[in-house]
Design brief:
about 80 residues, mainly alpha
Length: about 80
């Protein structure tokens, strides 16, 4: 089984999107939906996800440039 670094990064982004959906759902059915606490959490999480995606893609590009692959088991087994 080959595991691409891009697929792992997309999986992490998908989990963050699911967490954002849960924040919105629980906020809208909470005791005080007029207080925009849930929306604030989601906007903060979207900003964190954007930064995480940028750093993750930078690491993947660097690994591709150095190791000539983005296959995670191969990157893990190679040394500098």
């Amino acid at each position: 089984m080959r595991r691409s670094a891009i697929v792992v990064l997309v999986g992490v982004e998908l989990m963050l999107a699911a967490a954002n959906l849960n924040f919105i759902a629980f906020w809208s059915y909470g005791p005080h939906p007029e207080a925009l606490i849930g929306v604030t959490f989601v906007l903060f999480a979207i900003g964190i996800a954007a930064a995480e995606a940028a750093v993750g893609l930078g690491i993947i590009l660097f690994a591709n440039r150095v190791f000539r692959t983005i296959d995670l088991p191969e990157i893990r087994s190679l040394k500098w």
